Amino acid sequence: MRHPVFAALCLTGTALLSACGRDTDAEVEKVIKDVNVIDESNLSDIMLTVGDPNEAVTYFANTLKQNPDRPDLRRGLAKSLVRANRPQDAAEVWGALVNSGQGTNEDRVGFADALIRSNNWAQAEAELNKIPPTHETYERYRLEAMVADSRKNWKKADSFYEIAAGLTTKPANVINNWGYSKLTRGEYAGAEKLFTEALSYDSTLFTAKNNLVLARGAQRKYDMPVIPMTQTERAELLYTLGLAAVKQGDVNVGRGLLEQAVETHPQYFEAAARSLEALEGRVKN
């Protein structure tokens, strides 16, 4: 009499165990999947920062083939292509992303950046114009400033450079770019001021040091600026200043600066020596 009940209980228990087994398997699979996502996310971050650019391109391209609907992988591929000095390929990837409906305003900024790197200024400007004014980021305004510069719209360029500098805690590079813009316009005093400001944020930025010397040379200021520099940097800056003096027609001053550059450099300064030799030959002739 008890056998049917016992059998029923056994069957019920088996069903419960089976269901528990399926639930456990599903939970395990979910945990493994979550761990894989975390690991993949970490790997993606590494590839985008310290990894070899070409290896990163391969990684994101292969992973994207397996997961073609994931915008983060497409984004990673585009960024890796930029790092690998392949801006045209990056522009194609970013263009596909922003036109897929999965892209963000920041992706469109990246698209514009790749277009500028590809020397496609008109399309870059068109993409920036599609970004709403509420998207206020350093990268967006840095690119806006560069586009305005390319159009020689100095008032707008100055405004965008100023906004960009205010949106980052590390403004040295963008202020240096702003100074270079002033330098190309012939506004040498303004350029000098901006290069000095850039160095106040990053005293190791050699580009700003070199540009500062160029701005001073254009004003016939041939004394070295009071800025931190290594012995090698001093020699290279003396060389730049010497060439600037020669260009201004101050040949004797330029010769003296080139001689100082050769003497100051801790190794043989071939470029300065060659320029000095060429200058001596020109003077003799």
Task: Describe what is shown at a glance.
With 285 residues, this protein is mainly α. The protein is built from 14 helices and no strands. It folds into three domains: 102 residues, Tetratricopeptide repeat domain (Serine Threonine Protein Phosphatase 5, Tetratricopeptide repeat, Alpha Horseshoe); 84 residues, Tetratricopeptide repeat domain (Serine Threonine Protein Phosphatase 5, Tetratricopeptide repeat); 57 residues.
Keywords:
Tetratricopeptide repeat-containing protein, mainly alpha, Serine Threonine Protein Phosphatase 5, Tetratricopeptide repeat, 285 residues, 78% helix, disordered N terminus, 3 domains
Q: How would you sum up the major sheet?
A: none
Q: What is the CATH T-level topology of the largest domain?
A: Serine Threonine Protein Phosphatase 5, Tetratricopeptide repeat
* Alpha-carbon distance between the two ends: 127 Å
Whole-number tally of structural domains: 3
Order of helices and strands: HHHHHHHHHHHHHH
What's the CATH first level of the largest domain?
A: Mainly Alpha
Shape: elongated
Q: Could you say what the CATH architecture of the largest domain is?
A: Alpha Horseshoe
Helicity level: over 70%
CATH H-level superfamily title of the largest domain = Tetratricopeptide repeat domain
Mean pLDDT: 87
How many helices does DSSP assign?
A: 14
Going by helix content, strand content and strand pairing, the class is mainly alpha
DSSP strand content: under 5%
Low-confidence stretches: 1-22, 28-38
How much is the radius of gyration in Å? 30 Å
| Structure summary, number of beta strands | 0
Protein name: Tetratricopeptide repeat-containing protein
